[in-house]
Amino acid sequence: MKEITKKQARRFLLIKHGLLGDYKFNGKQGIVDYVKQVGCVQYDPIDVCGKNHELVLFSKIKDYSKSDMYDLLYKDRILMDWFDKCMAICLTDDWPYFEHDRINARYSNHSKKEVDAVADEILEHIKENGPICSSDIKFDKKVNWAWAPTSLSRAALDWLFFKGDLVFHHKKNTRKYYDLATRHIGEKLINKKNPNTNQEEIFTWNILRRLGSVGMLHNNASYAFIGIRGLKTADRSRTYKRLLEDGILTEIKVEGVKNSFYFKSEDKHIMDLATSNKEFKNRIEFIAPLDNILWDRKIIIELFDFDYKWEIYTPIKDRVYGYYVLPVLYGEDLVGRIEIRRDKKNKKMTIENIWMDDDNKSLLIDKMEDKVSQLGNMLYN
What we know:
It is globular and about 65 Å long. It is of the alpha+beta class and about 375 residues long. Helix 6 (about 110-130) packs across helix 7 (about 150-160) and helix 9 crosses helix 10 (about 235-245). It has 13 helices and 16 strands.
């Protein structure tokens, strides 16, 4: 089994995610290419200095624009909103692979009787009147739902979305407008059967997808595997073993790290580049809190010696840094943290705080200010 250094392992992850050297992903097609590579980009509605998916793609895509993303989701329909690990943006072509989730949704929700009673009425209303949001239908009764009690209108629309009857027609800020899936997902695709015909194949597809999302993982419990319904330790280990024997996965050791890493064998060319003597141009990037590369924070500690916690849910008195703080990447290293605020009224970005882990602050302050300016241009144009 080959052993590599921590520096080489860091380079592998950064090259994989297009964060090292020249930009690997460009413009509108670059968005599609990156989503295809990682499977999904996590969505979160909180907007302190840009939403999570905007920050993820801004750090990876040269000339990323919000209008390109909107078109890909709601005009071109190459991408779609879906629950993959968490609420995320995925390829529309992956629709058939989520059929097992839609089937599960049909038979399990917290207020099935109440939701069932109004589902047909909602579908008929949309069929006759077009896209709606929850405030367009007046089922104000409160019902139990996954996160908390909510209006029957919202619960019913969510349920119809998760079981595949509805898709998001568009979003206005965080407000979701729903339309019939058959109007936006091609008939051939919507009727295509799930290529995974049994539970073992479903586990395999999901594990490979998550490995591709991060780049490489241990055979351990990980936040990266959240959302793979029913996956147990024995299932994961059995799947790793079989994929390794079939040559689909490659095992590698990293000096100073106890457990082996595994990566998709199709990425061997990236590992070859990461372990070469090639020099890369240093870039400065801000890493989103839910960026795919951060899905396993233990690996970030092991390889980057950088302990990052998203403190948004940490009580104020217990926070070490701040509410919405982003890791700062410079070249091959995570060198600090930055807290940025978006002033929507005045269309400005302000730097609230910068914490550097070494003496790089004076060297990098101009670069960070320039990057914040670029971020503002992306958000407001």
